[in-house]
Design a protein that fits this description.
Blueprint (H helix, E strand, L loop, with lengths): L18 H4 L5 E5 L2 E4 L4 E4 L2 H4 L8 H13 L11 H14 L5 E5 L2 H18 L7 E6 L7 H6 L5 H5 L7 E4 L9 H19 L4 E6 L14 H13 L3 E6 L22 E4 L1 H4 L6 E5 L1 H10 L12 H16 L2 H22 L3 E7 L2 E6 L15 H11 L2 E2 L12 E5 L7 H22 L2
Parallel strand pairs: 3-13, 5-6, 5-7, 7-8, 8-9
Antiparallel strand pairs: 1-2, 2-3, 4-10, 9-10, 11-12, 12-14
Helix pairs in contact: 3-12, 4-12, 8-9, 13-15, 14-15
The protein binds pyridoxal-5'-phosphate.
Length: about 450
């Protein structure tokens, strides 16, 4: 929508975003399963599940009915002065799936809020247990943890200080163990671990509250999967220094092939885990902080975790979450993520062999990324002026494929398209997706590789 054709009053949310990335956004009018239809009658496959969220696709009857039934029975009651069954039942289900060490479940309205709750919980616990000097967090560069002022400080985003510098407390940053251009995944992990140890020595272990990492990277790294060494050594180093580890699984939970991606390293589990997208699956705003009973109960007896938001654990979101989790379990969607993810990854690897724009395929389960390169032999990046993933998004739309493109760090760490189809996709639908992506990549290569 050009500036001149904007309505005088109102209009859609994208009026707030840059005109360079909101030209010709399709106006969606209907959804069914993994497909969306725009007002021109064009059908799209939703290749990234919106922003990596609609795991059950569109129009899931069980979830919608559960929300309606809950709303009719008990629309809202506040968790600070009442209890309700949907809260308890969803907490029970999630804690059982998360397993030992994650017995207590705190609900929020989304991912950023869950990350902030995790940090505030750790801070209150530290103060209440006689460690008030612990306040720093360590995070990866690049990384993404949210859009609130607190989480903006945690994000591995080199452009954030220029805007928010005077207002935000920034975390200590260490290099993310990015595998794409590293000599090996293990070598990348070693660089990150050395930086972790250097940071602890520089600022003092006793001042550090937590290390916060995504066990499978999200959009900020295009589904980077760190070497297992990173998790094992980070756990050892943090435990030795009294530093807590938080896994940001806002994107990876449910879709990595396990309920938690953290379960891939059972000997290096974090202290806290935060989830969001796959729990509400797009039907309700819902985020989760998982914590050990020992810590929650200890703090409850001292001061309590005294902070909350009005919508925390609200009945309709919890009812949606229960139905989503029941669908995930009954249809074995974590297993599907593993099986279909392997199938889809094979298709993406086929595309890489024939399309010179694709320099790497990575990820876990149904959270995958393709690296977009100017020259595959040298893995040359596109540079700051040009956003190849957004160009690919535009080509893909013409082939009936909806991609998610949101460049971070101005392409300094590379460019990618992150692919995360709904977990209800069939193998045939994923083949169709890959075929459309192939055509979009051919068009993009013709435009970008001159
Ligand atoms: C890894 C990760 N952390 C945190 C967030 C923030 O979640 P929300 O947008 O629900 O606040 C996101 C959202 O994309 C994410 O992918």
């Amino acid at each position: 929508m050009g500036i001149a054709s904007r309505p005088a009053v109102g209009g859609p949310q994208d009026l707030f975003y840059s005109t360079t990335t909101t030209e010709d956004l399709p106006r969606m009018v209907r959804g069914e399963g993994i497909y969306l239809w725009d007002d021109q009658g064009n059908r799209y496959i939703d290749a990234a599940s919106g922003p990596f969220m609609t795991n059950l696709g569109q129009g899931n009857e069980r979830v919608l009915r559960a929300m309606y039934e809950q709303g009719k029975q008990l629309s809202f009651t506040y968790v600070r002065n009442t209890r309700h069954d949907a809260n308890r039942d969803l907490a029970d289900r999630i804690a059982r799936l998360a397993g030992p060490g994650f017995e207590r479940v705190h609900f929020t309205s989304g991912g950023s809020e869950a990350n902030e709750m995790a940090i505030k919980f750790l801070r209150q616990h530290a103060v209440a247990t006689g460690e008030p000097e612990r306040f720093r967090t360590i995070t990866l560069m690049p990384s993404y943890h949210g859009a609130t002022l607190g989480t903006i400080g945690m994000n591995g985003d080199q452009d954030a200080p220029a805007i928010y510098g005077p207002m935000v407390t920034f975390s200590e940053k260490i290099p993310a163990p990015l595998t794409c251009r590293a000599d090996s995944a293990e070598a990348a992990a070693r660089v990150s671990l050395a930086a972790l140890e250097e940071t602890i020595a520089r600022v003092g272990a006793h001042t550090i509250l937590a290390l916060v990492v995504e066990p499978v990277g999200g959009q900020s790294s295009g589904a980077n999967v760190p070497d297992p060494l990173f998790f094992r050594e980070a756990r050892r180093i943090c435990t030795a220094n009294g530093i807590r580890i938080v896994h940001d699984e806002i994107m990876s939970a449910v879709r990595s092939g396990r309920f938690l991606a953290s379960h891939y390293e059972p000997d290096a589990l974090p202290d806290l885990v935060v989830l969001a997208k796959g729990v509400g699956a797009g039907y309700a705003p819902l985020g989760v902080m998982l914590a050990p009973a020992a810590m929650v109960d200890e703090l409850a007896e001292l001061t309590g975790f005294n902070i909350s938001h009005t919508f925390n654990a609200n009945p309709i979101s919890c009812a949606a979450g229960i139905a989503v989790v029941d669908e995930v379990v009954d249809r074995d969607l974590c297993g599907a993520a593993e099986r279909l993810g392997a199938h889809f990854r094979g298709r993406l690897t086929d595309l890489m062999t024939r399309c010179p724009l694709v320099g790497d395929v990575r990820g876990r389960g149904m959270l995958l990324g393709i690296e977009l390169v100017r020259d595959r032999a040298t893995m040359e990046r596109f540079g700051p002026e040009f956003d190849p993933a957004d160009r690919l998004r535009l080509h893909a739309a013409r082939h009936g494929l909806l991609l998610y493109a949101r460049r971070q760090n101005a392409g300094r760490f590379g460019d990618w398209s992150t692919l995360a189809p709904p977990l209800i996709s069939t193998a045939a639908e994923l083949d169709e997706l890959a075929e459309r992506l192939g055509r979009a990549l051919d068009d993009a290569a013709e435009e970008l590789l001159v």
